[in-house]
């Protein structure tokens, strides 16, 4: 499954490395156990720090953006991530290939929105409805399809109704993802007109 907002894999890797280090140094290299244990502990601590997952909004200038905006965006993302994960789980459970692909596409769009909001936390409000309403509803609809499909005699009409809703949800997902790009473009159209006007004035075309 996709790593949405980081995980604790660094602790697992560090623990395994430390566990392997002690017997290697003690039995293979003939080093006293207590020395091997100290070295293993240092390796464990070093790997935990070195492999620590990147935190949300790490590297951004909090002062220029505002701690309130970042906190708002963080709350939205952390609440939304479980629903994106549920979309992936539902996609794995759905046997209809076309529908499963559509559900996975919804999860991919959600991940794209997450990345854009993390890169620009001040844009979070533009996709607030997407994160707090459409994404949770999409997860519920996808799970509903999987449940209906799992019946011995699934209602084909009901399945088709769910597919129709998933298509409409995809349109909403794309709309909100693209709205972040449109927002980033800002005054591009105005800038282009001004540049063209200047070029026409200076070089006659």
Automatic annotation (TrEMBL):
Where does the sequence pass through the membrane? Answer: 9-27, 33-53
Pfam families (UniProt xref): Halogen_Hydrol (PF10112)
User: Its domain of life?
Assistant: Bacteria
Descriptive protein name: 5-bromo-4-chloroindolyl phosphate hydrolase
- Swiss-Prot/TrEMBL keywords: Membrane, Transmembrane, Transmembrane helix
